[in-house]
Protein backbone atom coordinates (compact mmCIF):
# COMPACT_ATOMS: atom_id res chain seq x y z
CA UNK A 1 0.00 0.00 0.00
CA UNK A 2 1.32 3.42 -0.93
CA UNK A 3 0.24 6.08 1.53
CA UNK A 4 0.54 9.85 1.16
CA UNK A 5 0.69 12.12 4.16
CA UNK A 6 0.24 15.87 3.73
CA UNK A 7 3.12 16.64 6.09
CA UNK A 8 5.57 13.76 5.65
CA UNK A 9 4.94 12.86 2.01
CA UNK A 10 4.74 9.45 0.35
CA UNK A 11 5.37 6.26 2.26
CA UNK A 12 5.19 2.61 1.27
CA UNK A 13 3.44 0.26 3.71
CA UNK A 14 3.88 -3.46 3.12
CA UNK A 15 2.83 -4.81 6.53
CA UNK A 16 -0.62 -6.45 6.29
CA UNK A 17 -1.39 -5.65 9.93
CA UNK A 18 -1.11 -1.91 9.29
CA UNK A 19 -3.24 -2.14 6.16
CA UNK A 20 -5.92 -4.05 8.06
CA UNK A 21 -5.85 -1.67 11.04
CA UNK A 22 -6.03 1.32 8.68
CA UNK A 23 -9.27 -0.13 7.26
CA UNK A 24 -10.83 -0.93 10.64
CA UNK A 25 -14.08 0.59 11.86
CA UNK A 26 -12.22 2.03 14.84
CA UNK A 27 -9.82 3.93 12.58
CA UNK A 28 -12.66 5.02 10.32
CA UNK A 29 -14.38 6.60 13.32
CA UNK A 30 -11.43 8.83 14.22
CA UNK A 31 -11.14 9.96 10.60
CA UNK A 32 -14.26 11.90 11.53
CA UNK A 33 -12.92 13.30 14.81
CA UNK A 34 -11.22 16.68 14.61
CA UNK A 35 -7.99 17.16 16.53
CA UNK A 36 -9.13 20.47 18.02
CA UNK A 37 -12.58 19.60 19.24
CA UNK A 38 -14.94 22.37 18.21
CA UNK A 39 -16.32 21.47 14.74
CA UNK A 40 -15.04 23.52 11.78
CA UNK A 41 -18.43 25.15 11.16
CA UNK A 42 -18.35 26.55 14.71
CA UNK A 43 -14.64 27.46 14.90
CA UNK A 44 -12.83 30.60 13.78
CA UNK A 45 -11.81 30.33 10.11
CA UNK A 46 -8.08 30.52 10.89
CA UNK A 47 -8.10 27.56 13.27
CA UNK A 48 -6.34 24.62 11.60
CA UNK A 49 -8.30 21.44 11.13
CA UNK A 50 -7.12 17.86 10.81
CA UNK A 51 -8.37 14.55 12.06
CA UNK A 52 -7.17 12.26 14.80
CA UNK A 53 -6.52 9.67 12.08
CA UNK A 54 -4.24 12.04 10.11
CA UNK A 55 -2.22 12.66 13.26
CA UNK A 56 -2.14 8.95 14.13
CA UNK A 57 -0.70 8.04 10.74
CA UNK A 58 1.82 10.85 11.21
CA UNK A 59 2.96 9.41 14.52
CA UNK A 60 3.43 6.02 12.88
CA UNK A 61 5.47 7.59 10.06
CA UNK A 62 7.75 9.41 12.51
CA UNK A 63 8.27 6.12 14.38
CA UNK A 64 9.12 4.35 11.11
CA UNK A 65 11.73 7.00 10.35
CA UNK A 66 13.33 6.20 13.72
CA UNK A 67 13.32 2.45 12.99
CA UNK A 68 10.95 1.77 15.88
CA UNK A 69 9.67 -1.78 16.22
CA UNK A 70 6.55 -2.75 14.29
CA UNK A 71 4.78 -3.14 17.65
CA UNK A 72 5.55 0.47 18.59
CA UNK A 73 4.47 1.67 15.14
CA UNK A 74 1.15 -0.14 15.64
CA UNK A 75 0.79 1.40 19.11
CA UNK A 76 1.43 4.80 17.54
CA UNK A 77 -1.15 4.24 14.83
CA UNK A 78 -3.72 3.31 17.47
CA UNK A 79 -2.75 5.74 20.24
CA UNK A 80 -5.69 8.12 19.63
CA UNK A 81 -8.30 5.45 18.94
CA UNK A 82 -9.98 6.14 22.30
CA UNK A 83 -10.68 9.82 21.73
CA UNK A 84 -14.30 10.76 22.21
CA UNK A 85 -16.17 12.80 19.64
CA UNK A 86 -14.97 16.44 19.79
CA UNK A 87 -11.63 15.37 21.30
CA UNK A 88 -10.62 17.45 24.32
CA UNK A 89 -13.85 19.46 24.35
CA UNK A 90 -15.34 16.27 25.78
CA UNK A 91 -12.93 16.63 28.72
CA UNK A 92 -14.84 19.81 29.59
CA UNK A 93 -18.04 17.78 29.65
CA UNK A 94 -16.73 15.08 32.02
CA UNK A 95 -14.61 17.31 34.27
CA UNK A 96 -11.09 16.50 33.06
CA UNK A 97 -10.49 19.81 31.27
CA UNK A 98 -7.33 20.69 33.20
CA UNK A 99 -5.64 17.34 32.50
CA UNK A 100 -7.25 16.44 29.15
CA UNK A 101 -6.94 12.81 30.17
CA UNK A 102 -10.31 11.22 29.40
CA UNK A 103 -9.03 9.29 26.37
CA UNK A 104 -6.17 7.76 28.36
CA UNK A 105 -8.56 6.56 31.07
CA UNK A 106 -10.64 4.54 28.59
CA UNK A 107 -7.92 3.55 26.11
CA UNK A 108 -7.70 -0.10 27.20
CA UNK A 109 -11.44 -0.59 26.60
CA UNK A 110 -10.90 -0.43 22.84
CA UNK A 111 -8.53 -3.43 23.02
CA UNK A 112 -10.58 -5.70 25.25
CA UNK A 113 -11.16 -9.35 24.39
CA UNK A 114 -13.60 -9.77 21.53
CA UNK A 115 -13.12 -6.24 20.19
CA UNK A 116 -12.35 -5.51 16.54
CA UNK A 117 -8.84 -4.27 17.33
CA UNK A 118 -8.04 -7.23 19.57
CA UNK A 119 -9.07 -9.60 16.80
CA UNK A 120 -6.81 -7.93 14.23
CA UNK A 121 -3.84 -7.76 16.60
CA UNK A 122 -4.18 -11.38 17.67
CA UNK A 123 -4.42 -12.44 14.03
CA UNK A 124 -0.88 -11.10 13.57
CA UNK A 125 0.35 -12.46 16.92
CA UNK A 126 0.45 -9.14 18.76
CA UNK A 127 -0.79 -8.83 22.34
CA UNK A 128 -3.70 -6.31 22.49
CA UNK A 129 -3.07 -5.60 26.17
CA UNK A 130 0.59 -4.79 25.53
CA UNK A 131 -0.22 -2.57 22.54
CA UNK A 132 -2.83 -0.67 24.57
CA UNK A 133 -0.33 0.37 27.28
CA UNK A 134 0.57 3.93 26.29
CA UNK A 135 3.44 4.16 28.79
CA UNK A 136 5.12 1.07 27.32
CA UNK A 137 6.24 2.87 24.16
CA UNK A 138 8.67 5.72 25.04
CA UNK A 139 9.42 6.77 21.46
CA UNK A 140 5.70 7.12 20.81
CA UNK A 141 4.69 8.73 24.10
CA UNK A 142 6.78 10.25 26.86
CA UNK A 143 6.22 12.66 29.72
CA UNK A 144 6.97 16.36 29.34
CA UNK A 145 9.48 17.90 28.92
CA UNK A 146 10.77 15.23 26.50
CA UNK A 147 9.79 14.98 22.87
CA UNK A 148 8.16 11.90 21.39
CA UNK A 149 6.54 10.96 18.10
CA UNK A 150 3.11 12.02 19.36
CA UNK A 151 4.29 15.45 20.52
CA UNK A 152 6.50 15.95 17.46
CA UNK A 153 3.90 15.14 14.81
CA UNK A 154 1.12 17.04 16.56
CA UNK A 155 3.12 20.24 16.73
CA UNK A 156 4.69 20.00 13.29
CA UNK A 157 1.29 19.22 11.76
CA UNK A 158 -0.30 22.20 13.51
CA UNK A 159 2.46 24.60 12.51
CA UNK A 160 2.41 23.35 8.92
CA UNK A 161 -1.36 23.84 8.73
CA UNK A 162 -0.69 27.42 9.84
CA UNK A 163 1.73 27.84 6.94
CA UNK A 164 5.01 27.61 8.86
CA UNK A 165 7.32 25.01 7.28
CA UNK A 166 10.57 26.96 7.29
CA UNK A 167 12.67 25.82 10.20
CA UNK A 168 15.05 22.88 10.77
CA UNK A 169 13.07 21.27 13.59
CA UNK A 170 10.40 20.46 11.01
CA UNK A 171 12.54 17.74 9.52
CA UNK A 172 12.40 14.11 10.62
CA UNK A 173 16.12 13.81 9.92
CA UNK A 174 16.78 16.25 12.77
CA UNK A 175 15.83 13.40 15.14
CA UNK A 176 17.71 10.44 16.58
CA UNK A 177 17.23 7.68 19.16
CA UNK A 178 19.49 7.38 22.18
CA UNK A 179 18.65 4.45 24.41
CA UNK A 180 14.86 4.52 24.58
CA UNK A 181 14.61 8.30 24.10
CA UNK A 182 13.77 10.37 21.05
CA UNK A 183 16.20 13.29 20.87
CA UNK A 184 17.38 15.98 18.51
CA UNK A 185 20.71 15.56 16.78
CA UNK A 186 21.81 19.12 17.55
CA UNK A 187 21.10 22.09 19.84
CA UNK A 188 19.62 24.52 17.30
CA UNK A 189 16.66 22.44 16.09
CA UNK A 190 15.99 21.39 19.70
CA UNK A 191 15.94 25.02 20.81
CA UNK A 192 13.81 26.02 17.84
CA UNK A 193 11.24 23.35 18.62
CA UNK A 194 11.11 24.32 22.31
CA UNK A 195 10.49 28.00 21.61
CA UNK A 196 7.97 27.32 18.87
CA UNK A 197 6.14 25.02 21.28
CA UNK A 198 5.91 27.81 23.89
CA UNK A 199 4.78 30.29 21.23
CA UNK A 200 1.99 27.84 20.31
CA UNK A 201 0.76 28.01 23.93
CA UNK A 202 0.96 31.80 24.13
CA UNK A 203 -2.43 33.41 24.67
CA UNK A 204 -1.85 36.08 22.02
CA UNK A 205 -0.02 34.22 19.27
CA UNK A 206 -0.90 30.60 19.88
CA UNK A 207 -3.90 28.47 19.01
CA UNK A 208 -3.87 29.69 15.41
CA UNK A 209 -3.76 33.33 16.47
CA UNK A 210 -7.15 32.83 18.16
CA UNK A 211 -6.02 33.89 21.63
CA UNK A 212 -8.67 33.47 24.31
CA UNK A 213 -11.35 32.73 21.73
CA UNK A 214 -10.39 29.05 21.65
CA UNK A 215 -11.05 28.77 25.40
CA UNK A 216 -14.41 30.54 25.10
CA UNK A 217 -15.52 28.48 22.12
CA UNK A 218 -14.60 25.23 23.85
CA UNK A 219 -16.50 26.20 26.98
CA UNK A 220 -19.64 27.24 25.09
CA UNK A 221 -19.68 24.18 22.85
CA UNK A 222 -18.98 21.91 25.83
CA UNK A 223 -21.89 23.53 27.66
CA UNK A 224 -24.18 22.81 24.72
CA UNK A 225 -23.09 19.17 24.86
CA UNK A 226 -23.75 18.93 28.62
CA UNK A 227 -27.23 20.39 28.19
CA UNK A 228 -27.99 17.98 25.36
CA UNK A 229 -26.87 15.04 27.52
CA UNK A 230 -28.97 16.20 30.48
CA UNK A 231 -32.12 16.49 28.34
CA UNK A 232 -31.55 13.15 26.61
CA UNK A 233 -30.73 14.46 23.12
CA UNK A 234 -27.29 12.90 23.47
CA UNK A 235 -26.11 9.82 25.36
CA UNK A 236 -22.64 9.29 26.81
CA UNK A 237 -22.06 6.28 24.57
CA UNK A 238 -22.56 8.51 21.52
CA UNK A 239 -19.18 10.08 22.19
CA UNK A 240 -17.43 6.70 22.34
CA UNK A 241 -19.12 5.09 19.36
CA UNK A 242 -19.76 7.91 16.89
CA UNK A 243 -17.69 10.59 15.19
CA UNK A 244 -18.04 14.38 15.33
CA UNK A 245 -20.45 14.68 12.42
CA UNK A 246 -22.78 11.96 13.73
CA UNK A 247 -22.96 13.45 17.23
CA UNK A 248 -23.26 16.97 15.86
CA UNK A 249 -26.29 15.99 13.78
CA UNK A 250 -28.01 14.85 16.98
CA UNK A 251 -26.92 17.99 18.88
CA UNK A 252 -28.26 20.28 16.19
CA UNK A 253 -31.63 18.57 16.57
CA UNK A 254 -31.93 19.86 20.15
CA UNK A 255 -34.94 22.09 20.84
CA UNK A 256 -33.28 23.60 23.90
CA UNK A 257 -33.14 27.40 23.56
CA UNK A 258 -29.70 27.70 25.21
CA UNK A 259 -28.21 25.05 22.91
CA UNK A 260 -29.71 26.80 19.87
CA UNK A 261 -28.39 30.17 21.08
CA UNK A 262 -24.86 28.81 21.58
CA UNK A 263 -24.75 27.14 18.17
CA UNK A 264 -26.11 30.23 16.46
CA UNK A 265 -23.48 32.40 18.16
CA UNK A 266 -20.59 30.05 17.35
CA UNK A 267 -21.86 29.64 13.79
CA UNK A 268 -21.12 33.31 13.09
CA UNK A 269 -17.40 32.36 13.30
CA UNK A 270 -16.44 35.77 14.66
CA UNK A 271 -14.22 36.53 17.65
CA UNK A 272 -16.22 36.34 20.86
CA UNK A 273 -16.54 39.30 23.19
CA UNK A 274 -16.47 38.71 26.92
CA UNK A 275 -16.66 40.34 30.35
CA UNK A 276 -13.68 39.64 32.55
CA UNK A 277 -14.19 38.64 36.18
CA UNK A 278 -11.84 38.03 39.09
CA UNK A 279 -11.20 35.19 41.49
CA UNK A 280 -14.44 34.32 43.22
CA UNK A 281 -16.70 35.72 40.52
CA UNK A 282 -17.61 34.18 37.20
CA UNK A 283 -15.90 30.95 36.19
CA UNK A 284 -12.27 30.01 35.77
CA UNK A 285 -11.26 28.89 32.29
CA UNK A 286 -7.95 27.18 31.67
CA UNK A 287 -6.36 24.14 30.11
CA UNK A 288 -3.40 21.83 30.18
CA UNK A 289 0.01 23.49 30.04
CA UNK A 290 2.22 21.96 27.37
CA UNK A 291 5.94 22.65 27.17
CA UNK A 292 9.14 20.90 26.18
CA UNK A 293 12.80 21.09 27.13
CA UNK A 294 14.16 18.60 24.59
CA UNK A 295 17.24 16.46 24.87
CA UNK A 296 19.85 16.79 22.13
CA UNK A 297 23.10 15.02 21.35
CA UNK A 298 25.96 16.92 22.99
CA UNK A 299 29.32 15.30 22.22
CA UNK A 300 29.17 11.77 23.58
CA UNK A 301 26.17 12.46 25.80
CA UNK A 302 22.84 14.24 26.00
CA UNK A 303 21.94 17.72 27.24
CA UNK A 304 18.72 19.66 27.53
CA UNK A 305 18.09 22.95 25.78
CA UNK A 306 17.92 24.75 29.15
CA UNK A 307 21.53 23.74 29.85
CA UNK A 308 22.62 26.27 27.22
CA UNK A 309 19.60 28.57 27.12
CA UNK A 310 18.59 29.69 30.62
CA UNK A 311 15.80 31.91 29.32
CA UNK A 312 13.70 28.93 28.23
CA UNK A 313 12.75 27.82 31.75
CA UNK A 314 12.04 31.41 32.79
CA UNK A 315 9.46 31.59 29.99
CA UNK A 316 8.06 28.17 30.91
CA UNK A 317 7.60 29.25 34.54
CA UNK A 318 5.88 32.46 33.44
CA UNK A 319 3.50 30.38 31.33
CA UNK A 320 3.01 27.92 34.19
CA UNK A 321 1.97 30.74 36.54
CA UNK A 322 -0.48 32.18 33.98
CA UNK A 323 -1.89 28.74 33.31
CA UNK A 324 -2.37 28.02 37.01
CA UNK A 325 -4.17 31.32 37.50
CA UNK A 326 -6.45 30.73 34.53
CA UNK A 327 -8.95 33.36 33.42
CA UNK A 328 -12.07 34.35 35.31
CA UNK A 329 -14.93 35.23 33.02
CA UNK A 330 -18.36 36.63 33.92
CA UNK A 331 -20.01 36.38 30.53
CA UNK A 332 -19.34 35.59 26.88
CA UNK A 333 -21.28 37.62 24.32
CA UNK A 334 -23.86 38.46 26.97
CA UNK A 335 -24.32 34.86 28.10
CA UNK A 336 -23.83 34.76 31.90
CA UNK A 337 -21.50 32.10 33.27
CA UNK A 338 -21.63 29.44 34.45
CA UNK A 339 -24.07 27.86 32.04
CA UNK A 340 -26.03 25.24 33.93
CA UNK A 341 -27.15 22.02 32.26
Query: Radius of gyration over alpha carbons?
Result: 21 Å
The CATH superfamily name of the domain at 2-188 is Hypothetical protein af1432
Form type: globular
Q: Which CATH class of the domain at 2-188? A: Mainly Alpha
By CATH, the topology of the domain at 2-188 is Hypothetical protein af1432
In the CATH hierarchy, the architecture of the domain at 2-188 is Orthogonal Bundle
What is the chain-wise order of helices and strands?
EEHHHHHHHHHEEHHHHHHEEEEHEE
Distance between the termini: 48 Å
Number of strands: 10
Uncertain segments of ≥5 residues (pLDDT<50)?
none
* Total of helices: 16
Helix content: 40-55%
Would you tell me the overall average pLDDT?
92
Given helix and strand content, the structural type is alpha+beta
Topology:
Elements: E1 2-5, E2 9-12, H1 16-22, H2 25-30, H3 52-65, H4 70-77, H5 89-94, H6 102-106, H7 116-123, H8 128-132, H9 149-161, E3 175-178, E4 181-184, H10 187-201, H11 206-209, H12 213-230, H13 236-241, H14 244-251, H15 257-267, E5 274-276, E6 283-285, E7 295-298, E8 301-304, H16 311-325, E9 327-332, E10 335-336
Antiparallel strand pairs: 1-2, 3-4, 5-9, 6-9, 7-8, 9-10
Helix pairs in contact: 3-4, 3-9, 10-16, 12-15
Q: How would you describe this structure to a colleague?
A:
This protein is α+β, with helices and mostly antiparallel strands. It has helices at 16-22, 25-30, 52-65, 70-77, 89-94, 102-106, 116-123, 128-132, 149-161, 187-201, 206-209, 213-230, 236-241, 244-251, 257-267, 311-325; strands spanning 2-5, 9-12, 175-178, 181-184, 274-276, 283-285, 295-298, 301-304, 327-332, 335-336. The strands form four sheets. Strands 5, 6, 9 and 10 form a four-stranded antiparallel β-sheet that branches. The radius of gyration is 21 Å and the shape is globular. The mean pLDDT is 92.
Amino acid sequence: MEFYDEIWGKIRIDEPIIEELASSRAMERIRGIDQWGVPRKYALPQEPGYSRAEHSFGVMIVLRSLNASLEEQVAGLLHDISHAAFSHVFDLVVGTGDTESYQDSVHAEYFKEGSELAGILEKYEMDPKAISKLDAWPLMDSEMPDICADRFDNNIRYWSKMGDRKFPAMEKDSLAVMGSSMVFKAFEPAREFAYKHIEWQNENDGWGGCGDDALFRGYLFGSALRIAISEGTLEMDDFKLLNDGQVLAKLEGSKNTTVKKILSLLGERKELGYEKGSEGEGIRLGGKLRWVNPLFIDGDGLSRVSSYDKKLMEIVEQNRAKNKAGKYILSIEGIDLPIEA
